[in-house]
Amino acid sequence: MIICKSPFRVSLFGGGTDYQDFYKDNESFIIGTSINKYVYFSLRYRSEILNGENIISYTKKEIIDDATKTKNPLFKVILEKYKDKNKSIDLHYFSDIPARTGLGGSSSCCSCLVYAFHKLNKTIINKEQLAKISIDIERNILKEPGGIQDQIWSSYGGLNTIHIDKNGNFNVKPINISNEFKKELLNSMVLIYTQQQRNNHESANHNSMEDKKEILEISKNSYDLFLKEDIENIGKNIYTSWLVKKNLSKQISTPKANEIIEDCKNFGAYGSKLLGSGGCGFVLAICNEKTRTKIIEKYKNNILKFSFDFDGTSSIYEAYD
Known about the structure:
This protein is an alpha+beta fold. It contains ten helices and twelve strands. It has two domains: 2-174 and 309-318, 2-Layer Sandwich (Ribosomal Protein S5, domain 2); 179-308, GHMP kinase, C-terminal domain (Alpha-Beta Plaits), CATH 3.30.70. It has helices at residues 20-26, 73-82, 105-120, 127-141, 149-156, 179-188, 209-228, 231-245, 255-267, 289-298; strands spanning 2-13, 28-45, 54-57, 61-64, 89-95, 159-164, 170-174, 189-193, 271-274, 282-286, 308-309, 314-318. A hairpin with a 5-residue loop joins strand 6 and strand 7. The N and C termini lie close together (9 Å).
């Protein structure tokens, strides 16, 4: 039996510049972190004395003779690639956060299941390999639109920068800040759930190159602010970047998200934005302690408590016959 977990992420700067149609000409620079909210998979090959059925459980439960006939497209690809064809399987998925809410959950799911199969099959995979395989599955095999940062966050974990060159090669580096500033940053962040989920990838289709160039420049400028440990101007850049990002697609913003962002601004937040490719999910606010208290008081039923994750995808239980 293998049980693995993979973290969700909070992208702070540079989102949208990790799309191939942008970085192939301009490169990409992203700042963000993974958080201690996870997707999990438990995975095992079933005993020979059991019948040959495969049990696959997620939002649905499938009991099927051939695991590769699952109705879940992501599971199907990974099962075809990694499952021992002579054995039946138990596969169970569960999560700390609802799907399609702008925190990179689909990529966390992909990374976690790929990693779990490597553990189950006793094969070695490092973080870079895991990220590249996950990118290939989601972007090339499944042809899902989007960027490549989410697969990197879920694989590596950490509070990092990601540089992507024109060929799609990436370099992940921890941000060189003090432990005190990490605590200050964490304590300044609030995640507010809009109670909205995206039903498709429509909001991921945004192609305004000039706006993305501006987002890239804000990201590079914000890196200097991290090195200066300037929380207030980091927050202001979060909001500036959000205003630019809204121009990428009409589907990015929603009335509910706009309402929450405006509330945060009126309460005195340094900055706030809707996370992910848009249309759903969580609003991030950066603020001082007094403002944070006001936001939590108003949205107390929709606040996601979290901390940073520094491990990335990992196993939490391994038992072999």
